[in-house]
Design goal:
Blueprint: E1 2-3, E2 7-15, H1 22-35, E3 47-53, E4 62-69, E5 73-82, H2 88-98, E6 118-124, E7 131-138, E8 142-147, E9 150-160, E10 163-171, E11 183-189
Antiparallel strand pairs: 1-2, 2-4, 3-11, 4-10, 5-9, 5-11, 6-7, 6-10, 8-9
């Protein structure tokens, strides 16, 4: 799948509940690419992100993708929580699940939403010896904005040089509150931030 933000993404595998769904995932990505991605420009976090369905409801759910970076810049790794655009009750339900980014005087999130914990690993695979560029567990994903049809929680934003990478995302806890909510893992860039020279 091509991406105008400086990278290409190929799906690897998804374990747990998603392993036998490749045909469904391919169809779903085609629908999402045509329906959602052109309107993501209105979101302050990314433009034209590449996305893969992610089972945020089930601990142990895992996706692995290859991503080719063609522009040295900061890349944002996010989870998008989709809602039905014409359904204000569904929108409000998903907004509450995602929470917001406001903090109190002690720096604690006032409304963190559902606690989603993920492990993200970014491995540079160019050259003879793969090297880990980034690996961390993030157990406090923070609301990072919204667009038409989705709310977003950011995993991390990191600078990545030109090259090929394997990206592994694993859900570390069950989140039954998210049953019925479609979640997509995305990689994108901020259009207001220039490439790194």
């Amino acid at each position: 799948m091509n991406n105008s933000d400086g990278g290409d993404m190929k799906k690897g595998n998804e374990t747990k509940e998603g392993g036998g769904l490749l045909t469904w995932i391919d169809r779903f990505l085609a629908i999402v690419a045509t329906a959602f991605f052109p309107i993501l420009v209105s979101c302050s976090i990314t433009t034209s992100p590449t996305g893969v369905p992610f089972l945020a409801q089930k601990a142990g759910s895992r996706i692995e993708i290859e991503y080719r970076v063609t522009d040295h810049r900061f890349y944002s790794f996010n989870l998008l929580f989709l809602y039905r655009k014409e359904d204000s009750l569904d929108r409000e339900r998903v907004r509450k699940l995602v929470g917001d980014s406001q903090r109190n005087a002690n720096g604690e999130l006032i409304d963190p939403g559902v606690s989603v914990a993920v492990r993200l690993k970014i491995i540079e695979i160019d050259g003879p010896n793969p090297a880990v560029l980034y690996e961390a567990v993030n157990s406090e994903l923070v609301s990072d904005g919204h667009g038409v049809g989705f709310y977003s929680k950011q995993i991390v934003s990191v600078p990545i040089k030109i090259g090929r990478y394997r990206i592994v995302v694993e859900n570390l806890k069950d989140n039954p509150e998210l049953d019925g909510v479609e979640v997509i893992f995305t990689i994108g860039t901020n259009p207001k931030v220039d490439s790194i020279k």
